[in-house]
Known about the structure:
By secondary structure, the protein is of the alpha/beta class. It is 19% helix and 27% strand. It is globular.
Amino acid sequence: xxxxxxxxxxxxxxxxxxxxxxxxxLSVAPASxxxxxxxxxxxxxxxxxxxVDRFAVxxxxxxxxxxxxxxxxxGVDHRERSLRPEPSEIEDRMDLxxxxxxxxxxxxxxxxxxxxxxxVHSSGTKEDHRWFQNxxxxxxxxxxxxxxxxxDRLEEEDWQDVYGQGRNHAFSRNGFGYIILNxxxxxxARQLCIGQDFLQEHLKAFRDLKGVFLITHIPRxxxxxxxxxxxxxxxxxxxxxCDEIMAMLEESPNLxxxxxxxxxxxNGIIHNRGIPTVFTNHFGHYGVNQYGLRIFEVxxxxxxxxxxxxFEGKRAGKGWQYHYRHSxxxxxx
Length: 333
């Protein structure tokens, strides 16, 4: 079997569709993207046949919170780990984020952006949200959509004023539906099961589409992990068990997956009641020892691929040098 990086684009897509079953992980880090090596400047790639949308999900950014220095007890085993990828300062983090989005757009292209929530930290202001909207989300000339996180804290009216959409929002494009479901409130609650009527309405409206994504900051089931030493293993979960919502999702045959953030320490895929929840990487003040983006590729035949890019960045002149920790590809649909 030839290395994936050497296959022509059309063959690469056929290889992926034949070789990947749902939930199977394929490492796609060629030599140029190996751990510790800088990434070459991306070249524009021809759009693969059948690709209708390619979008990037940005994980928790917590602007303008400064980086947490040190270690925390993270993971299901609550072992102490380092949680400070580079760069650590907020200005550099945001510059690297903008650069990473621009690189994806210059390479294979991006059709839109999604922010998974906790855009701004609890102590942030409406003007901090406006800065992020103008300087990050609107800076790349493509549509953007946002989740409301437990740290965002804006009232509905202010949220709509800044981002031009409600805390519950839905849209469809190219035969696929996207439901953005609020999971918190202005007090930062983490155990709410809300938005059932909105979800039910749009699952019904989208039932004849090729596929549906549910995008929500806090997962709609108890994950069993938190990764915060203030809470410890006895706390259980920092997400609610929303049985009514999960039952709706189970009964939706065209649901592709759920997409969530919130847990900076986790960036994999968890199946609950047969439903995959894809976690984003983070660009926040602490978390797994890497930053990154979750890239989705959506094809007209219903195939969906999710790629996790995890990296650190170091200044290189006026730009950034990327050091990849891993690049994993998953087939979801």
